[in-house]
Amino acid sequence: MSKKHLKINIKNTQLAKALDLSGVKDKLAKKKASKEELEEKAPPKKEIKKSEEKPKLEEVSEIAHEEGLEAPHRKAKARSKSVFVHEETKEPQKIGAHKEGVSELIEEKAPEPVIKEVAPALETEKLGPTGRHVKDLIPPKKKGKKKPEKENTEKEPKTEKEVDLSKQEITIGRESFATTKKTKSLKFKEYKDFKPIKRSEDRSFDARDRHGLRSGEEEFKHRKKKSGKIKMEVEEVAILRPTSLKIRLPTSIKDLSYAMKLKASEVIAKLFTQGLIVTINDLLDDETTVQLLGQEFGCEISIDTSEQERLRVTDVTVQQEISSTTLEKLQLRPPVVAFMGHVDHGKTSLIDSIRKSNIASGEAGAITQHIGAFRTQTAVGSITILDTPGHEAFTAMRARGATATDIVVLVVAGDEGIRQQTLEAIQHARAAKVSIVVAINKSDKPNFNAENVYRQLADIDLLPEVWGGQTITVNCSAKTGSGVKELLEMLALQAEVLELKANPEARARGVVLESEMHKGLGATATILVQNGTLKNGDPILFDIHWGRVKTMHDEHGNILDSAGPSTPVRITGISGIPESGQEFIVVPTEKEAREIAEARSQGVRLLALQQRKKMTVENLFAKASESAGRKVLNVILRADVQGSVEALKAALQKIESDKIVVDVIFIGVGDITESDVQLAEASNAMILGFHTQVESHAESLLKDTGVVVRLHDIIYHAIDDVKEIMVTSLDKIAQENEKGKAEVRATFKASQLGIIAGCFVTEGSISRNDFIRVRREGNVIWTGKINSLKRVKEDVKEVKSGFECGILLEGNNDVKEKDILEAFDINYITQQL
Fold first, then answer.
1. Which of 237, 373, 422, 603 is 20 to 30 A from 675, alpha carbon to alpha carbon?
2. Is the whole-model pTM more than 0.70?
3. Secondary structure of residue 762 in the 3-state scheme
């Protein structure tokens, strides 16, 4: 192998193997002492010029010359990257490995790079023909790159054990060589398997630092772990309980205990000692109970009524509000007149005569079944008329009409006199403290008798004027129109005496006459404005419903922009169907109306839960005894308006029976829907519709489920239909009729048929379809049917007294001589309510 000038590259294992450097080790060992003394005395150099590199090269070349090696050439290049890196690098470099142990050679830091050259390689044997490359002997490199450290212009103090390069051994294969440096020595550090320490100063500024997430991280990292379990010391904090509270009623046990800073169990235990058995979710609505409970725990409780006042909106009635208004703002208003009386006494016909209309022709069954409100112009001025139903089922409607009116016109048929509903109307009028004017109708009939009506009125403390009393009476005829003008004059005179006034500038207040669910308009309500003026867009508040007036229509369907006092209108834009008879009031904003309505609705639900009876053992026995032997007919009611469904429900609940009761499980306004059919199927109920129809998509479900649906337009027809269904629901009573008797005188055994009784008919007759009762020694031992009846050898239908026959009983072979066979048939009798 020819000698060449090569650059030293310790890390290049192919070049190191080619060189025989084992002889250099002894030379380096001899000069160790002298080198250490020189380096300790020499001051640190900041810069090393290129001229200072020559002694290093000369030293290496001199050692190589003594060993018989050729001096290195400066321009020679190694085949791979040199491990003698520039001196500007901070981290030491790995230059070799020993056979027995792994060690690292770390070069000292120098400010300037130094070019290191190695002596030319000696002649060595080439690799064998096996094709094995030197890379197979190289240990695998560790993954990851170390970041280069910053350059230091000054040398760092020595902190580790230093050894001379003369003691460094580079062993590759079988041979090794040693080399020396003239200017500086290398540090020797034994290899240890540990991970390098990551210092915080080397860490870059990242997003965690930017967001302040590393604060206290170093302290936590170097914190010592405490051995053993950590005992948590719980400090007892004294609970400061209030001495006074202000709460709203009703309140739950849970809320009350939280406000008093007590456990709910303590409050429940205290109430239990006082005889009240409650749970944590029960409500307390008694002011005395709550205050006494607070005194038991040293807390003075006062009742907060501010929320109730806010929900009430106002505490004064319409009449009180009008009376408190100054006279300058009050104006005369039309009178509100309610026509009341018995059914079919001519109330609606009389109204038609006044209005010149024909309302009665459109009523189903020629009777009024809805409350009507009209405003008409007459010769004596404008009058608001309320038409109330006369049927006994519409008591609630008549009561609402009496409370919303100023004058009641009591219509009495002259040919019939005062009836039951007439007396009821008089009671409603007296309860409402309104004036009564009696119109004796049907004066055109030949059997008209006004004196009989006067006498009946006097019997109920309504002495007519013609008899010297104060009750105004007018004889009239709705058919001919006679007496109608006089009736209107009397109404105007009565209104003038009452001095009916209102304030049109005030906020609108009034009462709901009727409400319904319209297919196109949604929830609508017919209301009567009693004070103030109602305008389109006004936020309106009912009991638990609210809304904003979208449209207003009069009785003819004309659109109105405003409605003054004593004006009945139908409005839309409300959240639900208000109950008839509820009052309404206009509030400042729609938001306030919604909040108050929702709070009222929540209070109604809580009150319903509180009023629900607690189930006790006594209640269970009482309920069981009441329902024992009684059947229940479940009914779902649907009507066109709210007043009709209430009237129908009240009429059904008045049906008295000891054998069956009616249970109305649901009432609703509008058409019969799918949900009604599903509820009826689940609860085994019938559906009763009044002035309503079945929705188209619910008809197919009705056919599939087989639910019974009855539709009616006349209320007494609906009530009679329900009574018939109640009767058919009752079990029929079985009644036995004795037909004859026969005495068994012999028995015959047939292998295929069984025991045949040979009988002699002693009384009556025995038929093939009769039932047989076997009586032995006075006791009935079997009852059943006849399987076969024969006389001699022929089958017969009947055997009369004095003849013999053979009888084969169905399913009974226990027949003996001298048994008596009693024949009877069963008739089923329908029960009555």
1. 603
2. no
3. strand
